[in-house]
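Sample pair:
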Amino acid sequence: MANLSEIISANKVDARAMACPGPLLEAKKAIGSVAIGQVLEILSGDKGSREDIPAWCKKIGHEYLGVLERDGCDSLFVTRKK
């Protein structure tokens, strides 16, 4: 698996000010902005995103790469698969 800190995301969604399910809704809106095979990075201050985003990826068929804690928030990485 790639080192998460070295991933270059094609797009970044800043949902740090949002409570659940805001970050997930923002991710759903933004996934279409990246090409298939590219990475979307979701910035979230809501710890629920650590469960919501991977569950959504599994349900929809995208690849959840993992989470990095940086600057007091989470960076969650998703590769668009379709």
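Residues 3 and 39 are 13 Å apart (CA to CA).
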